[in-house]
Amino acid sequence: MQLPNLAYRFYERRLAKSLPADKLPHHIGVMVDGNRRWAKLAGTPTVAGHQAGADKILEFLDWCEDLNIKVVTLYMLSTDNLNREPGELRDLLEVIGSTLDRLGETNRVKVQQVGARDLLPAELAQKLAALESATANRGGVHVNVAIGYGGRREILDAIKSLLRDAAKDGRTLEQVTDQLCTDDIESYLYTKGQPDPDLVIRTSGEQRLSGFLTWQSAYSEFYFCEALWPDFRRVDFLRALRDFADRQRRFGT
């Protein structure tokens, strides 16, 4: 058992050292998929899979900190997830709440919600607001927690807010439409002021976005990993970064 472990650690260290620092992503989006399947395969309750996934989030953020990744967006709860069976949803919300507490206790990350807070239970919404305030001036990794998030909902919210502000300023609909540009919409997104994700990772073998960062991912690179999220290893992450570093980004050209 020891020789395989030593070989694995050697390979992992070698892989990490081979990554060019100037070609690492500044912003990584992660679709933390596979918790339910992990629990089913393990023969444990679904909530155990969600908890294992939450534990992996804390571990993953340590890896990002070690590699000086500046921004991470974690897809933790979609608007569709809010329609899950009440018992599972309750357990999932409890795990998310506990995870937010743990993020706050690290004293090393800045946390920001991206999502529709009005869709969330009042207690969770209050917890998010308090955590954002408490971590606002912290350094370290900027962690966007996509909770109550849907890509179409984000764009819709952005347009509604833009039109409301235009009305307050006394601008007509014709004036708004004549002057409207992509920068205007971007300034109303949940992630306004942040760089778009350079790399989006999805675990569990699924190869679709499921509404994740629909606007922001237009020129992102994508990496799909077969591992279920709780089984996602540091070496899997390093392989994703190596793959990203080897790509030639074109940004639509």
Automatic annotation (TrEMBL):
CDD domains: Cis_IPPS
Keyword Transferase carried by entry: yes
GO MF: ditrans,polycis-polyprenyl diphosphate synthase [(2E,6E)-farnesyl diphosphate specific] activity; magnesium ion binding; Z-farnesyl diphosphate synthase activity
Cofactor: how bound: Binds 2 magnesium ions per subunit.
Binding site for substrate: 34-38, 50, 78-80, 84, 202, 208-210
Keyword Translocase: no
Cofactor(s) listed: Mg(2+)
Sorted UniProt keywords: Magnesium, Metal-binding, Transferase
Entry GO CC: plasma membrane
Annotated residues for binding of Mg(2+): 33, 221
UniProt-listed GO biological process terms: polyprenol biosynthetic process
EC number: 2.5.1.-
Domain of life, source organism: Bacteria
Family: Belongs to the UPP synthase family. Z-FPP synthase subfamily.
Name of the protein: Isoprenyl transferase
Organism: Glutamicibacter soli
